[in-house]
Design goal:
Length: 310
């Protein structure tokens, strides 16, 4: 019996933030013609601990683990994650069944007075909770003060508006999903200002034995997104590193060709190494992309071992 005529709707798990719930609602809307759903909110460690940098409390997985526990215990049937929050290793019994079409992966600068990154005066305060963004800002403008800034999108924008910082760097995808894209002062080209791996993409995770995995996959999975993410996550897996390591990368597909560039930065932005690959994709494009990302990561690993903590 399909969920559309069942007394038990598919329970869609989400973090409680406005952005997370908005993303979950996008998934629910995409499934509406297939099955009934209901939203279940789950509080994660990353949501509870707001007074410390993410790197100090565990980094990747902080916004994921409780949702995965809820899946494994049967409290929810499907979890909607931001893919950039997902560790490479998935718990036994779970699988990523779909990656919906990716939103623009670019970072954006939001400033109170319309200044771009080059316009800020020496010592201006930029807020971010990302070690990658901090390193990239420091590489471009080592004379700026980079301040830790936690909280959801609305919280960070409010801190900017109150004058606690002069500018903040955010993901364009989050602003667009919240219909706040007009707040962006400058959009950084993701081909040159590389975003977080998998930024702008969602991951749909379910129990591997759930009979509805195939239906959900068919309704939500976007092939070009899945191929690009296979490359980026292959790069991530090859490098390993800690949550304190600034790692960035962006893969895109054009005319059956994969283009990928990845980089690892010194935490203070004073040095960096990058590598890129162009690959004509074969019949098993996801496997080809994953291998290309992994090999690109391995080609960098020996050069960046100190930054990876190895």
């Amino acid at each position: 019996m399909s969920h559309a005529f069942s007394q038990t709707p598919l329970r869609v798990g989400s973090r409680g933030s406005k952005l997370a719930r908005t993303q979950a609602e996008l998934v629910r809307q995409a499934l509406a013609h297939k099955m009934e759903t209901e939203l279940v909110t789950v509080t994660t460690t990353g949501d509870r601990v707001k007074d410390k940098p993410l790197a100090d409390i565990g980094g990747k997985g902080l916004f994921v683990k409780e949702l995965e526990d809820a899946l494994l215990s049967g409290r929810i049937d499907l979890a909607v994650h931001s893919m950039k929050d997902m560790p490479v290793d998935i718990p036994q019994g779970l699988q990523i069944v779909a990656t919906p079409a990716r939103e623009n992966p670019a970072d954006v600068l939001v400033s109170r007075d319309g200044k771009t990154l080059d316009d800020f005066s020496r010592g201006a305060r930029l807020g971010t909770s990302s070690v990658r963004r901090a390193a990239q800002i420091a590489r471009r403008r080592p004379d700026l003060r980079i301040l830790p800034l936690r909280g959801n999108v609305d919280t960070r924008l409010a801190k900017l508006d109150r004058g606690e910082v002069d500018g903040i760097v955010l993901a364009l995808a989050g602003l667009k999903r919240l219909n706040l894209q007009e707040r962006a002062t400058a959009i950084f080209d993701p081909k040159t200002w590389l975003p977080a791996l998998a930024q702008g993409a969602l991951a749909i995770e379910m129990r591997g034995d759930d009979a509805h995995c195939r239906t959900v996959s068919e309704a939500l999975d976007d092939t070009p997104t899945a191929i690009a993410l296979a490359c980026e996550r292959g790069f991530q897996a090859a490098l390993g590193g800690s949550c304190r390591t600034p790692i960035a990368g962006y893969a895109r597909i054009e005319n059956s060709t994969l283009y990928f560039c990845g980089e690892v930065l010194a935490p203070d932005g004073s040095d960096w190494e990058e590598a890129s690959v162009t690959l004509a994709l074969g019949p098993d494009a996801r496997r080809d992309a994953a291998r290309a990302g992994r090999e690109t990561g391995l080609s960098l690993k020996a050069r960046v071992r100190p930054w990876l903590g190895l």
